[in-house]
Amino acid sequence: GESVGLHLPTLSVQEGDNSIINCAYSNSASDYFIWYKQESGKGPQFIIDIRSNMDKRQGQRVTVLLNKTVKHLSLQIAATQPGDSAVYFCAVFAYSGAGSYQLTFGKGTKLSVIP
Amino acid sequence: EAGVTQFPSHSVIEKGQTVTLRCDPISGHDNLYWYRRVMGKEIKFLLHFVKESKQDESGMPNNRFLAERTGGTYSTLKVQPAELEDSGVYFCASSLQDRGGEQYFGPGTRLTVT
Question: How far is B47 from chain A (nearest CA, A)?
Answer without folding.
Answer: 9
